[in-house]
Structures are given as C-alpha cells and as structure tokens.
Amino acid sequence: MIRSTVILGLGALLVAGCAAMPAGQGAFSQSGAVAGADALFPVARRGGELHANNGATGQPMGVGVCPREKDLTDYSALLPQSLAAFPPGPKPEYTKAPRDFGRAFNTDAYRVLLTQDMGRARRDIDALRAHAERDAWVPAVQSNSAASAVIEGMGSVLPAWQILRQTAVATPEDRTLIDGWLQRAAEYADTHPGENNAGTFRGANDMLWGAMSGDRARFRKGVEQGYMAQLRRMRPDGSFPLETDRGVKALENSSRNIALMVYSAQIGLSGGVDLYATEVDGKSLDDAISFLVRAADNNALVDVYAKDDRNPSPGTPPFRPDSQVSPFGNPSRGWIKLYTDRFPGTELSRALLAHVDLPARIQSDTVGGVVTCYASRI
C-alpha cells in the first residue's frame, strides 16, 4: 500500500510550480521570471543568507559551507570534451565527459550563489548556451550507455542552472535556449530502461526538471519511475536486488542508490511531497538505510546476494566473502548529511554518524553537488 502523502503533496508542488513567484532582489532578481524557483531550495533567499555579512568575521555567512576559490576546477579544459561527448557514429558509447564537466560547472555555480559574482554567472550561462547551440549530449542514435552518461551530466547541471537562471544576467533568450536543450537531453535520457540506480538518478533529474519547467507529467514520472520503483523492487529486508548482486561493490552500489533516493526526497520536500514518509507494501527508505548499516557491520547479510558477482566494474577484484567495499566513502557524506539533518538524534542517524565524519564542506554528485552550500544551517 502506498501512503497518500505523495499524492496530496504532489498537488501542492504542481500548484506552486505554476504560480508566479515573488520577484527576487539584486543578484537573483530573475527569480520571479521562472517557474519552480524554489525547487530543491529557495535560490534567491538562500543566496541572500549566504552572502550576508557575518559581523563576527566580516566575511559572508556562507564562507564556511560553500566552495572556496581553491575548490573550483577550471572547466574550460573540460568544455570541448563535453560539447563533443558523442561524436557521429553508429552507436554512441558511455563517456565521463558530461559528468566531469557537470561536476566542475556545478561547483562554479554554487560559488556564484555565495559571491553573487555576475561576471562568473555570465560565463557559466555562456557555457550552457554553447551546449544548447550545439545540441550536445543528444546523440542521433539511441544507446543505454550514452543515456547513462547524459543522466550523470544532468544530475550536476540541473541544480547549477537552477541557480544561474535566476541571476540578474540571465536573459529570456538564455532561458529559452537552455531550457529547450535540457528538455531534449531529458527526452534522450528517457530511453534508458532505468531499473537500477541509473533509473533512480534519472527519476531525481525528472523530478527537479519537472519542478523547474512546470512539467507536471515529468515530475510524476520521476517520482514513479525513480523513488517509487526502487521501493517496489526492494526486498523485505531492505536490500536492492539490482545493487546487492554486484560482488564486493554491492554495498557501495546500494549506498549510491540510497543517495539518489534521499536526493529525490529533498526535491520533493521543497514542494511539499514527503517521500521520506512514503511506504510501498510496508517498505520505506529507512529499511534500505537500516540494511546498509547492518550489512556494513556484518557482510554476511549481503554476501548471500553479492556472491553472484554480476557485471563487475573494470579493475574490481572477484567476490570474496566478508570483503565488501565500504559504503561510507566520501560520496556517502552528502546523503548522510541530508538524512541526519532531517532526522537528528534518531537511532538510525546515530548509527550513520558512527560510520562517517561530516566535514564543513561536502560535494557529492548524487545529491545535487555542494550539498553544504544549499542545505547547511548558517
């Protein structure tokens, strides 16, 4: 049985997404010109909070949680590869180019959120316009591998565009051109079967893009084919069949899937949809997290599935009992921060925090990029 929370909250989000937003001020004066200006987080308000002077230090309030200049990667060297990610040919192959460009670009946009540097914002918008004008990331031939690469790239670019499209230097022409390109990229990503964590990632992207564009159908598709599909597939013990059979990386893949579900839940919360509280046949996100913690402490719980050693990544050693790669590496810090901030002091949150230290700045592709910049209390 699926709780009614999703249906009721979905209506609230869609009304909010189509309603006119109050005009922003200063650097984010275009917030009133876009639908879904608060999807994931309220950009104009958050930017104002981060940029405000900290009387104790004389620095902006967000300095401790947002990217520093030294944290940025100059994406100018990554731009040509991203623009030419899928050269003409019979079948496009997977490439890290969209992911690598998107990651660097995302961090740059969060720097704009803090500094309100409109010169940087204009340069970032021009980089996206270059993609739109070339129709990058939209191959002519369908390929699941290429669609997977597009999903990864969009995961970082969408939150960045959510910031940049609301800046004072974003024009209506920018928004029309870039929005059209992102829609075409989303439609290409639709071709991926989306049964494992790639489908969860696509679902989160569809939720965010649907909220940003006012596309009710795409938002619903993201909820159903991403988050809800994973709850339906999840075993009663909280394990994911298409993640836990992956040999020594079974728990690492499970953690990635959980991260993308947490991210989806955060997108939902921004519009009144509480996916955290949603169950399917008595199964919830908490069950998946509980299994992850228990199996990390006792690998035997996952080894019964992991021994199938399906589709190991290049360079991954063969399955051996009690040899799981830790699911609490650096990429997990983003989702653990979001979850433990949402549910402070619970037994599950304490168990997670016993496994990982959370630094002041956290960047993770699976939760929208620089999670501390958009979510930390300041």
From TrEMBL:
Q: Which UniProt keywords apply?
A: Lyase, Signal
**Which GO molecular function, any one, fits this protein according to its record?**
lyase activity
User: Under what name is this protein listed?
Assistant: Alginate lyase domain-containing protein
Source organism? Amaricoccus solimangrovi
Residues forming the Alginate lyase domain are 147-299
Signal peptide annotation: 1-19
Q: Name one GO cellular component term.
A: periplasmic space
User: Which intervals of the chain are annotated as region Disordered?
Assistant: 308-328
